[in-house]
Amino acid sequence: MEPNNTYEQEIDLKDLMFAVLYKWRPIVLAAVVLALVLGGYRAISTYRTQNDAQKLEDAQKAYEDSVEKFHKDQENREREIENLKNSIDEQEKYLEGSVLMRMSPYDVWKAKTVLFIKTDYQIMPEMVYQNLNFTDTIMTTYVTSLTSLEFFKDVAEETNVDERYLNELVTVSGSGNLLTLEVKHASQEEAQELMDALLDGVERMGRRIKANIGNHTVSEVSSSMASVVELSLQDTQRSQTDRLTTLNESLEQKQEDLENMEEPEPPTTSTMAAVKSGVKYAVLGGVLGAFMVVFFVCVIFLMSDKLYSAKELKNRYRVKILGTLPVSGKKAFVVDAWLKKLEGRAYGKDADTEYGLIAANISNYASDIKKLLVIGTADGGKLAEVVSGLESRLDGVQVITGGNVLMDEQALRKLPECDSVVLVEQCKYSGYSDVALEIEKARDLDKTLVGCVVFE
Description:
Bacterial polysaccharide co-polymerase-like, Rossmann fold, 4-stranded antiparallel β-sheet, elongated, disordered N terminus
C-alpha cells in the first residue's frame, strides 16, 4: 500500500470546531481569570475616580443642566404638537368650507365687468398751475374698498358665502380709468349674485368718494359671464390637500419624538458606577480570554502533526480503517463524553464487539494471510491489546506483536518475516509523518497493508 504523497491538506471545519470544544476547560478558565482581572481593575479605578469631590460636583451640575434642557425640549415639542393640531383643524375646515376647493376645474363660472371712471379733470393749456388730478386716488380707493374686510362682511351677508373665502373668488383691479371686477363660482347664479353685490358696492362707495375726494362718473364698458376650464385650480386644490397630508405626517413624527424622549438619569453613586464599569469590562475580559485560547487552539490544531481522527488518516493515505477502539482509562467528564458521542468517536463502544468487527474486516480484505504483524506508534500496551483481541478471532492466522518499527529494532526485524501488516495508531499521540514512514517501510518490503486500527 503506497502512501498518497499528492494529498493536499484541507481544513475540516467540523474537526476544528470539536478540537476547540474539547478545550472548554482552559477556555472557561481564561475567560474567568481575564474577566476578574479586567473587571476588578476597572471597578477599583472607577471607584477611586468617582469618589473625587470635584468630579461629583461636576457630574451633578451636568445632570441638572441636562434635566433643564430636557424639560425645555419637551415643552417646545408639546407646543409644536399643539400648533400642528390647530393647523390641521384649520386646514380641514378650509378644505371643507372653501368654495374654491370644492369647484370643478373643468366647470368654473366666471363673471367679468369693466367700468370706466371719468373725472372732471382737464388740462389747462398755457397755464402754469393745473387742476389737481384725483383719478388715480379715486381708482385706488375703489380697489381698496372693494377688497376690504368690511366690504366682504357685507357681501357675505348678502350672498351666504363665508367672508373668509371671498378673497379667493373676487378680483378687483384698476388701470388708468378702467376698474375691472372679476368673480368666479361653482354655479352661474351664485357668480351673478356675487357680481351684483360688487356692483352695489361700487354704487354705494361712489357716493362716499364723490363727497370726500372728488366728483366723477362710473359707466359700464363691458360685462360677461361664461363657464371656463381652469387647470391651474386643480394644482391649487392638490397643493392644499398635500399640505394637510404633510401636517399629519409632521404631527405623527413630533408625537413619536416626544414619546421617545428619555429623561436624563441622575449621576450614579460611586459604588454603582464602579459596579457597572466593572461588569462591562469583566464581560469584555471574558470574551477576550476565551478568544485568546480559541486562537491558540486553532493555531496548534493547524500546525500539529498529531493524528486527530481515523477519517483524516484514511483521507491522507487511502488506508482502510479496520475499526476504532476507545482509549481505556478514566471515565470522561460528562461534557467530554457528550462531545465524543456527538462527534462520533469510539467512546462508549463495546471492545469485544469492535474486535469482532475488526477481525471480520481483516478476513474480508486479506483472506489468504498466514502471518499478520501488528505494528504502530500507539501508546503503551495498545498493540498487545489488539493482538490479544485478534488471536482468538482469526483462525489459521499467526498474529505477531511487532511494535514501533521506527524506534524498535526487534519490531523492524520481524517485518520481513510476515506477509501482511496491520497498523495500530492512537489519536493525539501518533503522528501523520510517522504513519507515512511505517507505510513506506511496509511498501519497500512488498508487504500487504491490510488496514489500520485507531484508538480514539
